[in-house]
Structure formats: structure tokens, C-alpha cells
Amino acid sequence: MKLHEDLAQCVSAGLKIFDDVAQRQFGDLSVTARKVQRTWGLLQTAELAGVSHTAIINAEKEGKLPYPQMTALGRRVGYTIYEIDRIRQHFKSYPGKGGDICPVISLTGGKGGSKKTSTAVHLAQTMAIRGYKTLLVDIDQQGHASMYMGYIPNKDISDDETVLPWMLGKAQDLRYAIKPTVWPGLDVIPASLGLQRLEREMPDADLPFDDHMMLRAGLETVMADYDCIFVDCHPDLGLATINVMAASDLIMVTTPTALYDFMSSIQFMGAASDLFRELDMDDYEPVVKILLTMVVQREASQNIVAKLRDGYGARVMESEVLETDEVRKGQEKMRTIFEQSKDERSSPATHKRAATMYESLADEIMALTGI
């Protein structure tokens, strides 16, 4: 068998495995089948919706809002994210500022597996849970962030449904690429393998802006619809990643807390510094932060954490991304930790610790960017 035929058969078999897992998990391969199973209690719901719990109860009694699922004894089982969104609609209590402030936050770094994608996805969902209109942009041709949202690159998504047409000067704006997710208020621009064409085709393309500013220009065509934008990119310093960094108001460099892995962050920032020195971007002053990831309680890891915090000082985000099995176990079920029902979690304490990690990081980002 020829090599290309052998590899093509491997691809077909792999996609079937993926489909079988999704079929068992959701009973349907569509994006809309991936409903969020998590529920929130009445007091949590009231806080998220920005109204009092009494106002919610009264609206339900008056028939202005539907009751959530109830037990046989008449107690509330909990509110889904969809019911919370209906409450926000009823009370017009969305917290966003309608595009007046729409920072672009990117997760970058020179090492694969440094938690860029899982952090970007969980942060985007955290902001959606809080009621902010959020856009998640996937610039990694592997499309893992897209998969989290239910869109499989080159199966559900063609090259023309990614940022590629805009980046090659063949689209008027980025609206064509925006896809809905099962999360109210959270949209995604997915990725495909075709994004690797950017490196060889952008330099010769007829573009309306400098090639390193194309993504920023594209995001500005849709910013009015969102409160924040998160971008996930490939661990390299090609044109796509340069565009991501040039588009960002806050750049978080994911930095694993192991010595050799940390060196990849140094190399990434050094190469980026050399590249941006050559570009005419004197007015571009994003906030650059070091985000410590894969943090564990082992002495060696904690020693690196201490050295990084001492050496980088205020450049290090206060929040850390811990190494936790909760995210991995969620991936096995094709769900983030925020999408899981209580029955799908490891333990209440473990799940709460993982959720708090992302929520604290989101709080810090909001303070840095003015959301």
C-alpha cells in the first residue's frame, strides 16, 4: 500500500473512533447536541443574573419566567445556563458594555501542551457564564479549541469557514466565520488544517493592511458585538502567531513550571522580541504577562514558581493554572469542567478547585483589561 493511502486510511479510522465516542456521549454528532449539563443553585443564579433571588421567585410565580426543574417535594433542582440566560433577558441584566470595551486576550507560548487551549476555552466559558458576550478565535490549525466547541476541523469546518479568507484578503469582514456554540453568549471562529497556508500565501497576497495586522483589522470588524475576545494559537512564531500577538491587548505567555519547559518560553519571547523590533509598531503597547501553568505541589515545581515570581515580579499573573486531572477527565467525556453535570465530576472539592482556578484568572483579566 502506498504511504498516502495508508495515512488516509488511518485518518478515516481515527475520525470514526472520534464519532463513536461523540455518539455514545451525546447520542448525536451535531454541535447542538452538546448541551451544558451543569446547573446552579438559586442564590448562585441570582448572583450570575445580577438580580435578587426574590425577584426571580416573584417572576416565576407571576408566570413571567418558567420554573426550573423541580423535585417531587417542590424544591428547585437547579438552573441551567439556558434558564439563567432567560432570566438575564427578562430583567435586561447583562453586565457587558455593548462593544464599548472589547479587549483581545491571547494565549501564546513556544511549547505544545502548555495548557494554552484548555485555558482559553475555560476562560471564554467563564466569561459567558458571567453574561459577557464572548468570542473565541482558534488560530491553531490543529483546531483543538474548535473541538471543545463541537466543531471538528476538516470534517465540520472547511478552510473557507476559518479566518483564512480574511487573512488572504478575500473577505470584507470576519462575520462569515463566526459560529454559534451551545453556550448562550459564546461564539467561536473555528480552525482547520488549511490555516497552515497562511505562512506561504500571506506574503504574496494583495492585502488591505500590513500582513502582521490583518487579524487585528478583522477582529475590529466584529468587536462591536462582543465584550471580550480570546484567541488560541499554535506554539510557533509564524505569521499566524505574529498576527495574534499584534492583535492583542493582553498577551499571556503560558509558562510551564519545569526548568526545560520554561526555557521554551524564554526562547519564544526572545524570538518574538527580535521580530517585533523590526516591525513599525511604536504605538502598540499591549500588556504582556507570564501565566504559570502545569503547576504542581512538588518541591521542584514550587522552586521554579518561586524563582519565576522573584525574577519576573509583577509580570507574572497572580493566578496559576494547576495541573489537574479534572480537565483531562472532562476531555474524555468531551466536556469542559463547566459543562459537566454533578454526576460526571470527580469529587465536589476537586471540581471546585479547578473551577476556582479559572474563575480567579478571569477576575484578574477583567481587572487588567477593564471589562
Question: Any overview of this molecule?
Answer:
It contains 14 helices and nine strands. The N and C termini lie far apart (56 Å). The strands form two sheets. A seven-stranded mixed β-sheet has the order 5-6-4-7-3-8-9, sandwiched between helices. A two-stranded antiparallel sheet has the order 1-2. β1 and β2 (76-78) form a beta hairpin. It is 43% helix and 11% strand. The model has no long low-confidence stretch (mean pLDDT 88). It has helices at 3-26, 42-49, 53-61, 81-91, 116-129, 144-148, 164-167, 197-201, 214-220, 239-247, 259-278, 299-312, 325-332, 348-369; strands at 69-70, 76-78, 104-108, 134-138, 179-180, 186-189, 228-232, 250-256, 287-293. The chain is globular. By secondary structure, it is α/β, with parallel strands linked by helices. The relative contact order is 0.13.
List the helices and strands and how they pair.
Elements: H1 3-26, H2 42-49, H3 53-61, E1 69-70, E2 76-78, H4 81-91, E3 104-108, H5 116-129, E4 134-138, H6 144-148, H7 164-167, E5 179-180, E6 186-189, H8 197-201, H9 214-220, E7 228-232, H10 239-247, E8 250-256, H11 259-278, E9 287-293, H12 299-312, H13 325-332, H14 348-369
Parallel strand pairs: 3-7, 3-8, 4-6, 4-7, 8-9
Antiparallel strand pairs: 1-2, 5-6
